Amino acid sequence: MGDIKIKTAIPGPKAIDLLKRKEKNVPFGPFNTIKTFAEQGEGALLTDIDGNTFIDFAGAIGTLNVGHCPPAVVKALHEQIDRYLHPCFHVMMYEPYIELAEMLNKITPGTHHKKSFFLSSGAEAVENAVKIARKFTGRKGIISFERGFHGRTYMAMSLTSKVRPYKYQFGPFAPETYKWPYPVYSQENSMTSDALDAYMLNKFNTFFLSEVPPTEIAAVIMEPVQGEGGFNIPSKTFVQGVKKLCEQHDILFIADEIQTGFGRTGKLFAMEHFDVVPDLMTMSKSIAAGLPISAVTGRAEIMDSAGTGEIGGTFGGSPLGCIAAIEVVKMIDEQKLLEKAISFGERFKDRFGQLADWSGVKCDVRSLGAMCAIEFFDREGRPNSQLVQEILNKAHQQGLILMSAGLYGNVIRLLAPLVITDEQIKEGFDVLEAAIIDCCKQ
Question: 0.90 cut: is pTM over it?
Fold first, then answer.
């Protein structure tokens, strides 16, 4: 007997009742991956209100690297709640804010003097990193990448590179934002990785001649591994080439580690894989075991360019978020979660690396640590989002929570909590494999 226990159809009777209430009272806009409602979470398991227990390979979109309700975090939160909830750092300061800043300044890439401050969401972190970059450089232009995702607020949405569902009819967008192409080493591109890297990097130099001069660009923002874009993993050559271009033109390099940070890729931060030290870094999601907090960390002289009152927010760096984040960083070290992320990725490759051979379906399988993806194509090599949705639906009914990603929605992404047990990994992989086989036979 495994940990998955499915007692009803999904959604079950209680979930159906709640869905009716949701449809009446909540707008259509917020999307939902699986049509049921949580009752209890523990580690890599989620139980819904009808008593169905699922293995969670979505992790609240990469927010739960340390799992649902980690005991050390829960204990620390209870203790904090008895002291104070939210005096607001801008009114009366509190020590957890300072302690977390010291911690992030120490563990993020680079040995230079760094400073950190806190907000509530990943999008807010991106918005404020852009503000700081503009303030420091005196320039206005911001470059992001095709297929990149940086949030849904105004500037973050402008930097995001997918029309539906993120940008459709929400314009006009923030001015002075530009997109660079991003290398995708898959069936979509016939070039070798080396040739593609060289082509892309050369194209960026042309961009400065044809679109905007580098003297008007404040920063380039890059996800070390694209998240919503489909878990596209760049080469070290490409990332270092972008950083070198930034250095040549006094452009700041912002690493968006919101989905990749805190152990997901087998390093504490994914930029460590590429031996690149960013000028600014944005963090959120798994920073605090699901509590809403985000961070911007960067070179002290850059961070200090904003004057008093020019950055921040009422709920930024809440005491509960800070306390949770401090415990998360401790857990990653104490429970050797970086090693577990690497192990998860290795088991994923062992199980699905030859998927195209044994399933008969065209696909690309890729991973960096526990950031794992399978991209599906039809027989003509076109993105196959329909097959992905069928696989997801089948897996959900069998007790495995999965999500899609990618520009075309043809990627299955895995973001399982790193505290997941070996037995739960096997059980989850069994469900995923069976769902793929069943759907490919149809």
Answer: yes
The identity of residue 236, as a single letter, is: K
CB-based contact 368:349 (threshold 8 Å) = no
Q: What distances in angstroms separate CA 432 from CA 227, 266, 388, one per listed residue?
A: 20, 22, 11
Burial 1-19 (b: 16+ CB within 10 A, else e): eebbebeeebbbebbeebe
Q: Is the pLDDT reported for residue 358 higher than 90?
A: no
What pLDDT is stored for residue 167 in this prediction? 86
CA-CA distance, 191 to 349, in Å (whole number)?
A: 23
What's the farthest any 2 CA atoms get from each other in the chain?
Answer: 63
Domain of residue 234 covers: 92-334
C-alpha dihedral sign at 149, 155, 161, 165? positive
Specify the number of domains making up the chain.
Answer: 1
Look at residue 190 in the predicted model and tell me its pLDDT: 65
- Whether 435 is in a domain gets the answer no
The answer to whether position 140 is within a domain reads: yes
CA dihedral 407, 365, 67, 157 (to 10 degrees): -20
Percent of the chain residues past pLDDT 70, beyond the cut = 99
- pLDDT tens-place string over residues 325-340: 999 999 999 999 999 9
pLDDT in tens, 368-414: 999 999 999 998 889 999 999 999 999 999 999 999 999 999 999 99
Q: Is residue 184 part of a domain?
A: yes
Among 255, 263, 314, CA closest to 289 = 263
Q: At what angle do helices 337-352 and 422-441 cross, to 10 degrees?
A: 30
Contact 153, 119 (CB under 8 A): no
The one-character DSSP state at 30 is: S
CATH assignment at residue 158: 3.40.640.10
CA distance 149 to 256: 9
